[in-house]
Amino acid sequence: MSAFPNVKKVVYEGAESTNPLAYRFYNAEQKVEGKTMKDHFRFSAAYWHTMRAGGSDPFGSATMVRPWEGNVDNVKNAQKRVKVFFEFLEKMQLPYYCFHDRDIAPEGKTLAESNANLDEVVKVFKDEQARTGAKLLWGTANLFGNPRYMHGAATSCNADVFAYAAAQVKKAMEITKELGGQGYTFWGGREGYQCIWNTNMKRELDNLARFMHMAVDYAKAIGFKGQFYFEPKPKEPTKHQYDFDAAACINFLRAYGLEKNIKLNIETNHATLAGHSVEHELEYAAHQGFLGSVDANTGDTLLGWDTDQFPTNVYETTKMMLVILKYGGFKTGGLNFDAKVRRESFEPIDLFYAHIGGVDAFAKGLLIAAEMRKSKELEKMTKERYSSWDNGIGAEIESGKHDFKSLEKYILKKGEIEPNNSGRQELFENIVNRYTF
Known about the structure:
A hairpin with a 2-residue loop joins β1 and β2 (35-36). The chain starts with 30 loop residues before the first strand and ends with a helix. The longest helix is centred in the last third of the chain and has 27 residues, at 349-375. 46% of the residues lie in helices and 10% in strands. The chain has helices at residues 37-41, 47-52, 75-92, 101-104, 111-132, 159-178, 201-222, 246-255, 268-273, 278-287, 314-326, 349-375, 377-385, 392-398, 404-414, 425-436, and strands spanning 31-32, 35-36, 44-46, 96-100, 135-140, 183-186, 192-193, 227-230, 240-241, 262-267, 291-295, 335-337. By secondary structure, the chain is of the alpha/beta class. α5 (111-132) runs parallel beside α6 (159-178) and α11 crosses α12 (349-375).
């Protein structure tokens, strides 16, 4: 029996369509820069938001109407929920999904019971994957929800918690491998601190690295070939999280010898919480070879927390796609909609409207970005801005021919610098607007 009887398969109808259950810009097989849209994006739905977000907030209880949910969240109900999710993926034509372990199966009274619950639900995932062709982009473990993780997981002051978290991740990695998952993500939900006075930061960071090395070693032991990701987030729920932003994460990975094993999973709303734009985080990660995957969402500029809204700002998706295209697109990950419908959008049909909007916003952004790249206007203007480095003293500096003494000699002889050129920021912005409007 269908959970969404009034929804047929969502298909591309073109920009003139007014059908709210159709794609206007996302034509999966349309080629852009030699690759289909489907391959460019590798779109994924987040199980935790799509199927488990109830609409509650600090000021109110759950609002979501979900007819398929039973009165008790047991294994049988969890298995039923999986079938609903894959019907949603199938009708949306989304090729991938992501999950936390505790999203897909209820936590038991013991770890053994939790693991057994996972095994029963994973059986249905395997059947539904085979039926629909949908694939697991990446899996992860919820190491923040249970009260045992109040002080963190890998960074906890309680060694037993570290051990429990390790056992939980071990199982999460096993089921990710069993489902053919293409990656595994570390998100340090509570890997940080509230008060520096009661915190041994070095010990916590050492243990976090130790934990990740254990995961890398176990992946080799079980033959898991998927890519590991580290997801930056500066705060919330802790005051200061160790995965603050792309720069902090990359520094951590290099400092502890993990740079060859782990890339980054960049999230838009996390970037803005860190005081950055998402294109800054993407560029910073990508130019150093650490861009792995992207959690596609957005925040509200009037609110200072992680609202996980669906991305509908074409200007923003264009900027994101410009960076992603610049570095050759996704090699491992994809665009995962780590986003939830608003508390007031409580009907099942709203799940479709939300994801359709996000898909189309990125499709439009891709088309605009590709057109901009084809013209090379921004590229030529940027090259001109840095032209002093292409020959003469600039080329000599970059080739390693100078030191402080020789540069002092050069500038004393020259007397004064060549005049600066205008940055032309407003012209750059006007050109972008010409393509975007």
